[in-house]
Amino acid sequence: MWQEFKDFLLRGNVLDLAVAVVLGAAFGKIVTALVENIIMPSIALIFGNTDFTSEWAYKGITYGVFIQAIIDFIIIGAAIFIFVKVVNTLTRNRFVEEAAEDEQIVLLREIRDSLKNDSLKS
């Protein structure tokens, strides 16, 4: 049973998930700081007060909190989308360069083999 538990913990998927959770939490803090300290104050300069939580309420129903959560969600989602898009672009470019390098190696091998065959025929 101990060996199975060890195998489970050391399996790549579990480790990848743990790293993703830690990085996600750290990235969440960055995005929250961006929203609370840069984006929302910038919006406040344009539209006035952006704190919907205290102003938008009706007979104890604070629907402003819900509206604030929706705005935060949209901004956080957009920030994560842009971050993932940039990472995917950078990663894709690296793989394209590696693939191009592999094609060059294949071509060089073909030339080498062709030269070997020509020298054997002579």
TrEMBL record:
- Which keywords annotate this record? Cell membrane, Ion channel, Ion transport, Membrane, Transmembrane, Transmembrane helix, Transport
Per its UniProt record, what SUPFAM superfamilies does this chain match?
Gated mechanosensitive channel
Topological category with respect to the lipid bilayer: Multi-pass membrane protein
InterPro entries per UniProt:
Mechanosensitive_channel_CS, MS_channel, MSC/AndL, MscL_channel
Keyword Transmembrane tagged: yes
Where would you find this protein in the cell?
Cell membrane
Pfam families from the entry?
Answer: MscL (PF01741)
Q: Which residues cross the membrane?
A: 12-40, 60-84
Q: What is its main location?
A: membrane
Q: Which family does it belong to?
A: Belongs to the MscL family.
Q: Fill in the subunit field for this protein.
A: Homopentamer.
What exactly does this protein do?
Channel that opens in response to stretch forces in the membrane lipid bilayer. May participate in the regulation of osmotic pressure changes within the cell.
What is the recorded name of this protein?
A: Large-conductance mechanosensitive channel
Please name the source species. Answer: Salinicoccus jeotgali
Q: Which gene holds the coding sequence for this protein? A: mscL
